[in-house]
Amino acid sequence: MAETATTSTAVSWTQHGAWADIAQAGQLGAAGPAGVTAILQGGFGLATLIATPGGAPALSGLVESRTGITLPATPTIVSGASHDAIWSGPEQWLLRAATHDGFAELLEALSVQAAVSEQSDARAAVRLSGPQIRDALAKGVMLDLHPAAFAVGDTALTSIAHIGVHLWRLTDEPDGSVFEIMVARSMVGSFWSWFAASAAEFGCQVSIDRSTGRG
Amino acid sequence: MSAQPFRLASGGLIDRGHQLDFSFDGKSYGGYAGDTLASALLANGVRLVGRSFKYHRPRGFLSAGPEEPNALVELRSGARREPNTRATVVELFAGLDAASQNRWPSLAFDLLSINRLVSPALVAGFYYKTFMWPASFWEKLYEPLIRRAAGLGRAAGAEDPDQYEKAFAFCDLLVIGGGPAGLAAALAAGRSGARVILCDEDFRLGGRLLAEKREIGGKPASEWLAATLAELESLPEVRIVPRTTVFGLYDHGIYGAVERVADHLPEPPAHQPRQRGWRIHAKRAILAAGALERPIVFAGNDRPGVMLAGAVRAYVNRHGVLPGRESVLFTAGDDGWTTARDIAAAGGKIAAIVDSRPADPARKALADKLGARLFAGGAVMGARGGRQLSGVTIRDASGVVTELSCDLLAVSNGWNPTLHLTSHQNGKPAWDETLQCFVPGSLPADLAVAGSAAGRFTLAQALEDGARLGRQAATEAGLAATASEPAPTTDPETTGLSPVWRVSGGKGKAFVDYQNDVTDKDVELAAREGFRPVEHLKRYTTLGMATDQGKTSNLSGLAIMAEQTAKTIPQTGTTTFRPPYTPVAIGALAGHHRGKEFRPVRLAPTHDWSKEQGAVFVESGPWLRAQYYPRPGEADWLTTVNREVKAVRASVGICDVSTLGKIDIQGADAAEFLERVYINGWKALPVGKARYGLMLREDGFVMDDGTTSRLGDSHFLMTTTTANAGKVMQHLEFCHQVLWPELDVRMVSVSEQWAQVAIAGPKARETLRGVVDPEYVLSNEALPYLAARSVTVGGGIQARLFRISFSGELAYELAVPADYGDAMMRALMQAGASFGITPYGTEALGVMRIEKGHVAGNELNGQTTARDLGLGRMMSSKKDFVGRLMAGRQALVEQERPALVGFRPVEPGQRLRAGAHFIGTGQQAVMENDEGYMTSVAYSPHLKHWMGLGLIKGGAARIGERVRAYDPVRNGDVVVEICSPVFVDPEGARLHG
Lengths: 215, 993
What we know:
The complex is a heterodimer of chains A (215) and B (993). With 215 residues, chain A is an alpha+beta fold. Chain A folds into two domains: 26-42 and 122-209, Probable tRNA modification gtpase trme, domain 1 (Gyrase A, domain 2), CATH 3.30.1360.120; 45-118, Heterotetrameric sarcosine oxidase (Alpha-Beta Plaits), CATH 3.30.70. In chain A, 17% of the residues lie in helices and 37% in strands. Chain A has four helices and 14 strands. In chain A, strands 3-14-4-10-13-12-11 form a seven-stranded mixed β-sheet. A five-stranded antiparallel β-sheet of chain A has the order 6-7-8-5-9, with helices on one face. In chain A, strands 1-2 form a two-stranded antiparallel ribbon. In chain B, 22% of the residues lie in helices and 27% in strands. In chain B, helix 10 crosses helix 11 (534-541). The radius of gyration of chain B is 38 Å and the shape is elongated. Classes of the chains: A alpha+beta (215), B alpha+beta (993). At the A-B interface, strand 2, strand 9 and helix 4 of A face strand 8, strand 31, strand 39 and helix 20 of B.
């Protein structure tokens, strides 16, 4: 994670991201061509937006004017060039920005139309793909992730291995479906323990993307 | 390596080029790939494989499938030893190591077979009758003795070294069984594009086709099978899962299945589980599980060498093993003749065919062709032999008795549909008088039954059912049906049957239930003693219990009971089948969640730092929190905790409090909302201030407490206790969504966003000064007690600073975004280094809160009111709030109700114990004299004695009185003095410093 030198004390305030000491880059499980690819995300801005009563259209308009994306009314994710709006409940969304640059100002501007709560450090995110990703996720996800049942852009709040997760499907890659999962920061160790065990038989290529939170 | 004397020279679905060496009871044998342990042992002439449960009678193989009651073995050794595996379904692998069960010292010479000599005492219900008196002998003497003498295999007794998994699957159609009906169904649905999952418990697909010599479409059935499998594999939405038993049908079309991923290997390959438990959500399912063959009850019917006729065909045709040199067929129908034909075709000698039905010229001609004597209208009265069958006693139609030598008796008495899953949702099987078997009764919606499982026993019917129901399932899943093709033709077969439930008149025991050693006499006894309803029959005799759940015995038992009570079989009833169909290892149900993975663990953002500091962690709900930070040379935890407490009170300490729940509450009605959920007032709280709040449940008891800060006019940050964070969030959501949806209040948990640390002690402000950016003034005036401010740290990092105290010291809580939690701890340690800053854990936190008389989880135990805790005055009388009315109930406001006070030992050296009950001095320690109990205790290094908080009748009015703190569990009986719950700094001077 990016280091921020400080001026007021001699201590350097180094960020210790959610994945630190949990997962490392490299191949996990079976050797050979990886059936699963995991990219650990970091560096994104994230906030909960809850519209004022009856204020969802206005909020959506405001978000659109600032980011170019509208807020979805159904459990889906809407992605733009630099931001995603992820449905997370009735009149409630997660707004994610690729970087922290300008994020605080954006949230400030949105706070006139919404209850805004920053969550940038509250979630660990991982982007998952590869030809066998659905087989790996089937070991914990209690939802049908078949392309016919869970479309590109669909999101779900569900649980994996007794851990609450927020997951969605991104645009396919040539070797199949792509998913992203967000999990509460405090439980990422247990989540990864489950994931590593579940993906091991397929071989999993793990990498770390510190620059962006976007899939 | 010994030869395989019972292996046929050719034929069978085995790979003769691939020999597998294995051992049974320490002796080495050879088999082939494609064998089961049973077929390989039979090929080697091994027929004695176990001793029976109660009488220790020698037992062999009855079946060739999952219904096997006798041939249970311990598979593998050491930590992987698995008891009660059925040799008939264990796939042979190189190095397989199995042992027989329930014998001592050896299988051939079993001392406990002496049980047989006292067998008259071991009849049904024997342990209820024999071991009644004296009662104390049951646990100490009778039960251990019975358990040693009567039993099955031994568990490994060591932790299972293998991994297990759970997984979830979804489909339009689940096909249960990969025989002709199931394959036809999967093909018909799969061709329409339906998502199909086909599970078969066998390692090879085909079901009975593998065991039979049949023709489909004028060609050997194997060609149809190969073509069908090839086409199924070509369909992308069809998934075929062999070695997988669908064991249960649950609500909403959910099926439980267990996949034996690596049971056919010595040990699982790297990264593979041994087994995988599946939860399958199926829009529709077709049960094509086939049928189980029925034995006949006659004397000696358990001799090793007495086998089901269909099983004999399976060994001959599938495994290339002829299980005997000289065979006798005892059949009640046409099916047994097929076995005779196949034995003869394999070159076996058939001494006789005993057909229970009257003479028939066609059958006579066939018997002559097979070179066998025919006893039409006859019966096998008895089988003899010790460790293996040596001959049978046959009674012909005229009553003449003939003794014949043989080493194999194949018994054919018709088949029972494998309808177990149809009754898992309370469906009752229906008796079919024509077929003389139970067939599926009312079916759950979305479940259809095909082929033999539906009582449609011919191959033609199986193929027809499968194709029709498979097409129907696809249509119902919304897919365009493919053109209906006529089911392929098959070679002719007949299914004439006149079942024989029991042959009387033989000498010796006639077994109904092999696995539980239940005989026909036991059923008769149950009838005589009034245990006639089937459920009573089962429990009295144990008929149908244990690992095979009566797959081969239930119907015979019912038939004999029916005969005894002069009723029909359907009048007598049937037992209801419950999941699982066959035994399932607990590991497959637990999956990943064993040991420390039992449930998720939550770690604070400062966890790695605490670990580095040598913290000992304690489980606090799902969290791991630093309990204390021992240093080298410290003798015990108390030494460490005393040091930490003293350091805080003397200088400064830091303690992670990130685990507390944090709820961001915004909206125009946020203050009003807090008014309604807390007992105290909130509207007057100024922006930039924090306040202690207490909330009740609707029933008037305390739910949780914590500080809530006003960050803006319509913006609050609530904190909850660690343990109740989720519960409070749920409660607030309920209050908003259900009770007051009209309020403009919006909330979300931000517990995970912030790393928060308490900085406590006289040097707290000076320490903080080194961390908070210089433009923020920290003086007592600028930042008074209960101030709540936004600040920055480390040169511009957004942070929140609260001047709140749980320790009673000058104290702050500093919160930074979680990614900076680790850096915050390091910065504070550096800033406080010159003051000897000390990390402290939950133990020291607990000591200091008890010294200050603050309540925590021990007091907020769901049974206390605000009044009980001395917080009654907080309850506002100017507003309504959740729990107000119920808190006023008479019992909750009685003067006598125990209330919170402090306790100190009269003799300062004495230790106090939480949980001790208070009794008046000089009073007897009996319930009537109970006055309350100690909720929390700690040793106060400040006071240099133990102190306690507790609830006692009369509460603060009794300060100065002495009572006994009586703790019979730990032999504690200490005289304590009732005192103020605030032990340290009652004026609060330190807090405001």
